[in-house]
Amino acid sequence: MEHTLTQVKNYADLTPAELRALVDPMRLPRHMAIIMDGNGRWAARRGLPRIAGHRKGMEVVREVVTACSRLHVPALTLYAFSTENWKRPPLEVSVLMSLLTLYLRQELSLMKRDNIRFSTIGRVEDLPPEARAWIERAKAETAGNTGMVLDLALSYGGRWEIIDAVKKIAADMKAGNIEPDALDEKIFSGYLDTRYMPELDLVIRTSGEQRISNFLLWQTAYAELYFTEALWPDFTERDLLVAILDYQGRQRRFGKTSEQLGS
Ligand code: IPE
Ligand code: IPE
Ligand code: MG
């Protein structure tokens, strides 16, 4: 059966393969980011400790990374741990750090198989030594890969990222490397952790919360936002494909009128 976007009102009847066939490979988000939220609630609904939700969430990360890489999404940033998440109970923080290490140990071979290049944003220096060592190893061993960039936001906060950029710019101005009048959006972006990433096109947040929670504040300026009720541990490849199809059905006007865009 032939499907076009206008014919399909409800994606629920379609298999992931059918949904995949609807995705326009020429209009994929260049950089997609996901606020993976709802692990704790997923666990609570099952009478399990929050940690069980984080564990299940980690399996979903694998599925989503593989799906994005196979679609040839150029870059995927996953919000794994925010600067604010340090305020959680110490036991939860330490379990999250162990899961991060476990994830990297398990997934490094898959990253290599799938030609994925691993990177991070955020204050990685705040993480425990074991996690940092695996991060360095994953970066080094995938540095030559040419497929999707998998970027983990770890101890990441958008405001901190901007303040860090401002500090570096101030130092460069003091040293005479940049003229204050020369500073523009392009130069500023070059001081952010995301300087090597393509333009952010799509942000997905799971669990029904509709907020940014200090994620990619500068980069979201013109990103499309997609919110879903699914809790992160329940998020599937199908949900991912539906989000991308929704994104592809939107008109991005960047301040212009529809008429100017000729459609
Ligand atoms: C997201 O799930 C994972 C992290 C923030 C590390 P939560 O742990 O925030 O889950 P909820 O929001 O409490 O359900
Ligand atoms: C955002 O989720 C951070 C991550 C997904 C890593 P939170 O669950 O920490 O966000 P808030 O505090 O509810 O806004
Ligand atoms: Mg949460």
Description:
This protein is an alpha/beta fold and 263 residues long. The protein has a domain at 28-157 and 199-248: Decaprenyl diphosphate synthase-like (Undecaprenyl pyrophosphate synthetase, 3-Layer(aba) Sandwich), CATH 3.40.1180. Helix content is 43%, strand content 13%. The protein has 9 helices and 6 strands; from the N terminus they run αβααβαβαβααββαα. It has helices at 16-22, 39-45, 50-71, 90-113, 129-142, 158-174, 185-189, 237-248, 258-261, and strands spanning 31-35, 75-82, 117-121, 149-156, 202-205, 224-227. It has a 6-stranded parallel β-sheet, with helices on both faces. α5 links the parallel β3 (117-121) and β4. α1 (16-22) packs parallel to α8 (237-248), α3 (50-71) runs parallel beside α4 (90-113) and α4 runs parallel beside α5. The longest helix has 24 residues, at 90-113. Bound molecules: 3-methylbut-3-enyl trihydrogen diphosphate (IPE) (2 copies) and magnesium ion (MG). Residues 36-41, 81, 85, 96, 207, 232 line the site of one 3-methylbut-3-enyl trihydrogen diphosphate.
Bound molecules: 3-methylbut-3-enyl trihydrogen diphosphate, magnesium ion
The outline comes out as: globular
Per DSSP E runs of 2 or more residues, the count of β-strands stands at: 6
Given this structure, which CATH class of the domain at 28-157 and 199-248 is correct? Answer: Alpha Beta
Whole-number radius of gyration?
19 Å
N-C termini distance: 27 Å
Strand arrangement within the widest β-sheet reads 3-4-2-1-5-6
Oligomer: single chain
What do we call the CATH homologous superfamily of the domain at 28-157 and 199-248?
Decaprenyl diphosphate synthase-like
The overall pLDDT average reads 96
Per DSSP, what share of the residues sits in E-state strands of 2 or more residues? Answer: 5-15%
Counting DSSP H or I runs of 4 or more residues, the number of helices is 9
| Biggest sheet layout | 6 strands, parallel
Order of helices and strands: HEHHEHEHEHHEEHH
